[in-house]
Amino acid sequence: MSGLRFATLYTENQEVATAVASLCRYHGLSGLVQYQMAQLLRDHDWINQVYLPENHARLKAAHTYVSEELRALGIPFLSRGAGFFIWVDLRKYLRKGTFEEEMLLWRRFLDNKVLLSFGKAFECKEPGWFRFVFSDQAHRLRLGMQRVRQVLAGKSQVAEDPPPSETQEPSDQRSSAELLKLCFSSASLSPIKQNQESLDVSIVSYLERRSRDCF
């Protein structure tokens, strides 16, 4: 048993909700999981007084660390009041201002064990933007930023994972629980071209095709 897996979909788009409903019979949960999740969600005091404050504090600490590292490297970035990632401007590290060069830089990160999301995948208007997810444990963020520095400095060696004895959180730092990767962004401030209506249509079309294939 790999763990208790549970997820919900929150949407105000009725077409998306209808399309997803047709697939629910293939993704049912066992009675045991439903019972445990119901008990957890009923514990409003724990959610409001323990989980949410601790979750927010850990996210804030992680965001602060990555932001300070980027400032120390002299890398511009866009930071918003909510979300689990930071949009980072790495245009000055491209030899040419093309999306081909963006992919080459993305590949250099990948070769050094750093998996980033490149801007073209999100319809960025100009190459060189990358998405840094910071919702992770502090020791992993430190290792990740060490590898980022190596790539940007033109070094090929890969920072090794620290031994288990060194991966414990210091007493003055907080670790980050595994979180739902929800994204909050502003269309007027983000470099991403927002098109929610077309996104909803794409999701609906995909789910409808999957539904027909199942029957």
TrEMBL record:
Gene3D superfamilies, A to Z: Aspartate Aminotransferase, domain 1
SUPFAM superfamilies the UniProt entry points to: PLP-dependent transferases (SSF53383)
Compositional bias of kind Polar residues: 166-176
Keywords (A to Z) from UniProt: Pyridoxal phosphate
Claim: Metal-binding is one of the keywords in the record: no
Superkingdom of this protein's organism: Eukaryota
InterPro entries for the chain: Aminotransferase_I/II_large, Ethylene_sulfur-biosynth, PyrdxlP-dep_Trfase, PyrdxlP-dep_Trfase_small
rRNA-binding in keyword set: no
Annotated ranges, domain Aminotransferase class I/classII large: 1-134
Region (Disordered): 154-176
Matches recorded under PANTHER family: 1-AMINOCYCLOPROPANE-1-CARBOXYLATE SYNTHASE-LIKE PROTEIN 1, BIFUNCTIONAL ASPARTATE AMINOTRANSFERASE AND GLUTAMATE/ASPARTATE-PREPHENATE AMINOTRANSFERASE-RELATED
Name under which the protein is recorded: Aminotransferase class I/classII large domain-containing protein
Organism of this sequence: Saguinus oedipus
Native organism taxonomy: Eukaryota, Metazoa, Chordata, Craniata, Vertebrata
